[in-house]
From TrEMBL:
Belongs to the short-chain dehydrogenases/reductases (SDR) family. PROSITE patterns: ADH_SHORT (PS00061). Residues 3-190 form the Ketoreductase domain. The keyword Oxidoreductase applies. The lineage of its organism: Bacteria, Pseudomonadati, Pseudomonadota, Gammaproteobacteria, Enterobacterales. SUPFAM superfamilies: NAD(P)-binding Rossmann-fold domains. This is SDR family oxidoreductase. It holds the Pfam family adh_short_C2. Coiled coil: none annotated. InterPro entries: KR_dom, NAD(P)-bd_dom_sf, Sc_DH/Rdtase_CS, SDR_fam. Keywords: Oxidoreductase.
């Protein structure tokens, strides 16, 4: 039987690349998105063209009731979840701490941290052996910013990714005996739309010369890591992090 994966933020960028790669590996895909319905439906259509199964799931992961409803819809459309990719994340305009407001910080944390927690919770309820589940695997998409701090750009975002890393460590230990592996990926500078949200669409090309590898990364390069961490090839790996930041 096909395995079922839910990828949050799968309409664009790293999530989209991950959804397409997991399809090639035989997963049915829940394609979560926030507002870009056309982009999400295009991902679903591409998956169908490849002979795969997919279902678009609109939900704001920062809103508990929407996460609960999304998982219920996944259950009825594609079946029990085997793999969760907590990929959806946001950042705002580059700025220094003088311009950070509580509203902005709370908004970043609501999506990047609370959303990740809520999706982990719903997945564990379904995967854990103690709940009659079959086990599973979770990959949390963090950022090199968790290590580097993103000074002068978005330390709120960096701190949210630090929290994601701590969630990954704690949850991996909490559910290791429940047949669930939890790991993290920390991408560096990847060519996606996200940098436009920070006010600098060309950020990767501006900064890439400073990287040891002197280039930005492609979403597909991150998707490969996520797919490996979800796979049986990584069956003895939990609570681990893979940095994919061109050597930084
Ligand atoms: P993009 O900005 O390209 O895409 C973001 C995706 O997340 C979209 O699918 C968007 O949906 C979805 N999304 C945003 N907010 C929510 C929400 N509240 N609920 C549900 N879905 C939501 O992002 P990237 O592909 O660049 O980033 C993916 C992950 O990788 C993020 O966690 C990011 O922090 C991390 N990362 C990215 C790096 C980079 O250089 N790009 C570097 C390090 C980490 P919609 O299309 O509907 O708006």
């Amino acid at each position: 039987m096909k395995k079922v994966a839910l990828v949050t933020g799968a309409s664009r960028g790293i999530g989209r690349a991950t959804a397409l790669l997991l399809t090639q590996q035989g997963y049915s895909i829940g394609v979560n998105y926030l507002q870009d319905k056309a982009a999400a439906e295009q991902v679903v259509a591409l998956i169908h063209e490849q002979g795969g199964k997919a279902h678009a799931l609109q939900a704001n992961i920062a809103v508990e009731a929407e996460v609960v409803a999304m998982f219920a819809e996944l259950d009825t459309t594609l079946g029990p979840i085997d793999a969760l990719v907590n990929n959806a994340g946001i950042l705002f305009q580059q700025t220094s701490i003088e311009h950070l407001t509580a509203e902005r910080i709370n908004s970043v944390f609501a999506t990047n941290v609370t959303g990740c927690f809520l999706c982990c919770r719903e997945a564990v309820k379904r995967m854990a052996l103690r709940h009659g589940g079959q086990g599973g695997a979770i990959v949390n998409v963090s950022s090199a910013a968790a290590r580097l701090g993103a000074p002068g750009e978005y330390i709120d975002y960096a701190a949210s990714k630090g929290a994601v890393d701590t969630l990954t460590t704690g949850l991996a230990l909490e559910v290791a005996a429940q047949g669930i592996r939890v790991n993290g990926v920390r991408p560096g500078l990847i060519y996606t739309d996200m940098h436009a949200s920070g006010g600098e669409p060309g950020r990767v090309d501006r900064v890439k010369a400073l990287l040891p590898m002197q280039r930005g990364g492609q979403p597909e390069e991150i998707a490969q890591i996520i797919a490996w961490l979800l796979s049986d090839a990584a069956s003895y790996v939990t609570g681990s992090f893979i940095d994919a930041a061109g050597g930084r």
